[in-house]
């Protein structure tokens, strides 16, 4: 990510990649690490594109034949590491899923390295690191269970099930937020993401099936000063719930107005397009406002103008990627197969836009806060994850990340 892609040229010969010249028996761990590194590619980095294709083909062939033992190391679960990397590419992988899987695959002090003799690398593989990581993850799970209990009660009190919101869809919304933004001190951002996703689902369902008035009617109600709950009027009830949510998430008048504007913009896209707008941008804006990182600004100088231009590019890329992925629906685990995206050209556009978004987020020089840039990538990857993975896979990940004991 620092213009070093060309270094891979030194390890390529006639379309093949190797660790040293004349290597005849390639290492699984070397190809595995090459595959992981090559997935974080920016547009135009052809070396990484070739490295990804070559290493993936190598790993798939070894996986199919059951030949996943390595000549450099005897790890606890190398087949499991390779399987996860092949089944869930980087652009669809969420941080807390990766961690949970690796806790099962990391062998601690039992991993053995192979040289002229067998030896252990205590600074790389040790029990203290493993126990610390396990304790951290258990703490994360305890916090998640409390947050999930509160979120479920919140959705029930607001009768969101009447608008098509189920317990499973609420849990999935929370999981996507928690698997992306997992730090203990970022609970407000995490719950802001989850609650916003759930309420947006309720509003979308109500508008799609005609139980609510048109989006412009909801927009007028949202702008007016009267927001009473009325169970006989679905639109009024949802607008009331929306204002309650904004009041819950806001920490001052400025943040309240910013959250209100974010919802107005989302509803305005319904009015303009006749179908739901980009929930992705609503989620990004909510997370950033809840964190206090986003504030209203006008381009009063060149620095601010440059920042706003960068921010606009991040929004455009995220909206475009997530809209295409949302249209694809739930995936089948086959890396956006033709069943989930219309054609190869669409898949290529999504991947190219993801590469461009990754470059915007991961580049070292930017006038936008690094955590803010990461929010865009988190949301985009969560959409890619849903489009890529089957419902069964998502449910298995939810169980493992949020509820299953770490042992």
UniProtKB/TrEMBL annotation:
InterPro entries: Isoprenoid_synthase_dom_sf, Terpene_synth_N, Terpene_synth_N_sf, Terpene_synthase-like, Terpenoid_cyclase/PrenylTrfase. It holds the Pfam family Terpene_synth. It comes from the Eukaryota. Signal peptide: none annotated. Residues 6-86 form the Terpene synthase N-terminal domain. GO terms for molecular function: terpene synthase activity. GO terms for biological process: terpenoid biosynthetic process. Transmembrane segments: none annotated. This is Copalyl diphosphate synthase3.
